[in-house]
Amino acid sequence: LSLHDRDDLTTLVSTRRAAEKAYKMAGISAKDVDIVEVHDAFTILGVIHLEDLGFAKKGEGWKLVKDGEIEKDGKVPTNLMGGLKARGHPVGATGIYQIYDVALQLFGKAGPNQVDDASIGLAQNVGGVGGTVSVSILKLPIGSKESFCWIRLGSREYSPPWTRKVSSRLLLVFGFLSIAKTIIRKGSIVPLCELG
Asked: What is the largest CA-CA distance in the chain?
């Protein structure tokens, strides 16, 4: 979608739609998310994305930044490893590192940037000029640090037999047109399959 075709330059409809779908699939809302990674290729985009993802009312995302609410101990810890700008925005690899950073948080391995008791994380990635957006929600099932991966599709959770050798249990939900099941294995991301 070209910029000149948009009704509002301060929102990405694709982010709102992907977020709605991901929240519904995960059975949560924005208030349940403990850690956030947004596609902040430009400073204003970080603010816009926080609003479109439901963490602030439209036009009030800047208050989260001003009031320190995106910091480690804030209401919406966001991009605690520096975000896209800190990593040089590696086009193509951006979404992978965002998932990796959220997984580090969930596994309690984010070092000095660790959010206490993080159990649900969200990663939002933008393609092109915002016509394509993916929102991924990662969740550690309650009390879980066990040795297998759970995947949620709709309202069903299951652990496919081929994932039983995974080192940590992780629930991953994508809010995107196609669902890609992905697990973390020894610090790397391993795609399992694509569903159309």
From this structure: 49
